[in-house]
């Protein structure tokens, strides 16, 4: 079924089993299960309010699931806080930007490398040489990442002076600074113009080629269909379908949901 | 085209310039000041500045309010007053014991307190400060109650610190080290994590910052700092009353942070200077000083919500920008307008 | 034994009623603007001081009381217009400092006008204690409890049964939505300041015959009112009421049975314990923060 399964080992990087969360009466995610194979680009689509962002929040530890399992390399991680998951190579960006506007753009990227650095305060207070050297090196590395995402012009900018599109890229650079194994991107192209969208498309391919497993939520169907190895469709918190782009395009349930939701323009 | 990032060399960063300027000021001041009244004022300013630096790391950089910080000052001050007087401890040991007690209390309180946000956090820290103040006020057999008690002189390795000049150099050195250390901390992995959790706590958590630990660390640090400065204040003044730990003093300290400039190291210094001098200057208004103090706070917050130094810096920046544009416009000729 | 308990209970409910009025004041402003008004205690003090002043100026008691409520309301509106309105979108700390600034201005003016002395207001219906189960209750206590109860019922009626009140409540739930359906939210804002100042001042007027008042009596009353508002969960009217009574009774019991010198500490110990175990107060709702 999956092109890769014939060659790749059996355990997926990420398995989600019967995952659910309720907010009061709202059942935002209900019994969702799926597997993501290492190294692929996996997309999650669905109408507004389908539960895509909530799913990301659950997997990255921001929300605690009401029920279900999340397995990272076969080990259960549900309910673990985000900073623990970060240690295991999980990185993400946010649909509603979460950039630290009290810092410069470069510092935002540097924060991404938090776990790789010596965080001792006393050494910091007295300018410990090894710590200074590591920080200088990180400066260069962060600048490199900013170029990689196309922000070479903003190397000295304050984050609060940057455009929306630039901030979206900045979040990607910050996530990459974590050197993640799994990267979750929540609508990286939302609000961008067609040219910028194309650049993001390009960027995601480059990231995937470097060996990072990418999980993508995106409303731009052209982008999703061309990028994704596999696609998960959510509707009202439930799994509606899962498969390759070609399979999803022909799935009657998916077509019905999208037409039913009135999102004719987005019909695959 | 790939070019390396321009890392400004140490010597040119504004922070470094500020530090050098401060060092020069510290060296020159005692030559200029002959009057003991002014020397005393300068010492008080410096003490407040050091406390405010620590508090600004907590409030301005990490974004956590504390309306009970005077309570920690009180712990240090009373440790230095009570332990030597009633139990014969050497002053330095008393200071350390006070700092350790403040640190322990801050650590124990941090876990429940920092799950709280905004007004709830303000309430909890305020409550803590008030309880501490009431303890100092009520345990009169040890603390002298509302009238306060005398504090024995500070002894460092057999040397007694008694004259204002000696105190000046000790406190000036502490101030310089504190400014330097603060600047270093905010520009380090630890400091960036603190600022990140202020900017977006979920972003910080997702990149691996254990925000509970960081909030606790900075709370404990600033409390320890406050306690040490409380001890030093007590020794310097030679007397301590519960007023050092009252709610109004906590408010004054927070005000120094906010008026000077949140998340601005040099702003903290400016805030300490202004708000230490202001009450003295207003004292001549006989009765109106409270009104004037309140009015100045309000005006400051309305017209300079980011605090004095950041606002001034921004004004200066935009002025420079305007001048640069004007120049550029001239050299390009009038054709484009 | 029982008599003593009743004595403490009554004095706790009496002072608790004042805290409840203060807490309702905090709650009304918080709901309309998410501002915590640290000047709330000054309204209480102002009520007491002005009642004394007007009474000494020869006004009959009812008129003196009325004026002592109206003037603080005007001060509240003035404060909202001049001080709070300009910084609507500022940081929490900034707004807290602004309201502290306002409280200093009010306290300072009172200090200049009246001096630092303590003032007494005569009781509304004499000083002959009434005996209930062996406890001696001052008639003024009945005034405090009775009028507070009326105010609570009145506020409840206003917010749940009148269009104006419902509009104010709607604004507190969702400002934008309220604006969309045509509610003038700026009006709601100053109205809430006027009402909370009036309620606070009334509490001050009522309690002054029992406690005396001075320029600085608003600080502790205000802080304890804040405690009461937080105990119940910020924004909850019922919470403010329960919180106020709880704080008052606890304080009176503590003063009677434990130590009178630590009675002021008890509300703050209570609030720390509550916040530790219920980070949103007794009546606050649990929510997952949206990301
Ligand atoms: N923290 C929360 N508290 C309460 N309800 C929530 C919370 N987070 C999400 N929801 C609800 O869960 C449902 C799913 O929301 P979610 O943001 O996951 O949708 P989405 O698929 O990402 O939509 P969009 O395409 O608009 O981003 C919505 O009904 C939303 O209101
Ligand atoms: Mg979403």
UniProtKB/TrEMBL annotation, chain A:
Keyword set includes Repeat: no
Superkingdom, natural source: Bacteria
InterPro entries: AAA+_ATPase, ABC_AA/LPS_Transport, ABC_transporter-like_ATP-bd, BCA_ABC_TP_C, P-loop_NTPase
GO BP term (any one): L-alanine transport
Record-annotated ABC transporter domain positions: 14-261
Keyword tags: ATP-binding, Nucleotide-binding, Transport
Gene Ontology MF terms: ATP binding; ATP hydrolysis activity; L-isoleucine transmembrane transporter activity; L-phenylalanine transmembrane transporter activity; L-valine transmembrane transporter activity
GO cellular component, one term: plasma membrane
PANTHER family found in the cross-reference section: AMINO ACID ABC TRANSPORTER ATP-BINDING PROTEIN, CONSERVED COMPONENT OF ABC TRANSPORTER FOR NATURAL AMINO ACIDS-RELATED
Name of the protein in question: Amino acid/amide ABC transporter ATP-binding protein 1, HAAT family
Species, as recorded: Insolitispirillum peregrinum
Automatic annotation (TrEMBL), chain B:
Membrane topology type: Multi-pass membrane protein
One Gene Ontology term of the molecular function aspect: branched-chain amino acid transmembrane transporter activity
The organism's place on the tree of life at top rank: Bacteria
Keywords for this protein: Cell membrane, Membrane, Transmembrane, Transmembrane helix
Name the UniProt record assigns to this protein: Amino acid/amide ABC transporter membrane protein 2, HAAT family
Coiled coil: none
Localization: Cell membrane
Keyword Transmembrane: yes
Stored InterPro entries: ABC_transp_permease (IPR001851), LivM-like (IPR043428)
Primary residence: membrane
CDD domains in the cross-refs: TM_PBP1_LivM_like
Entry GO terms, CC: plasma membrane
Transmembrane segments: 12-33, 45-63, 93-113, 120-136, 167-186, 217-237, 257-278, 290-309
Automatic annotation (TrEMBL), chain C:
Pfam families attached to this UniProt entry: BPD_transp_2
InterPro entries: ABC_transp_permease, BCAA_transport_permease
Listed GO MF terms: transmembrane transporter activity
Subcellular location: Cell membrane
Recorded topology in the membrane: Multi-pass membrane protein
Transmembrane segments: 6-28, 61-80, 92-114, 134-159, 180-206, 226-253, 265-283
Annotated keywords: Amino-acid transport, Cell membrane, Membrane, Transmembrane, Transmembrane helix, Transport
Principal location listed in the UniProt entry: membrane
Domain of life, per lineage: Bacteria
GO cellular component, one term: plasma membrane
GO BP annotations, alphabetical order: amino acid transport
Family in the record: Belongs to the binding-protein-dependent transport system permease family. LivHM subfamily.
Protein name as catalogued: Amino acid/amide ABC transporter membrane protein 1, HAAT family
Organism listed in the record: Insolitispirillum peregrinum
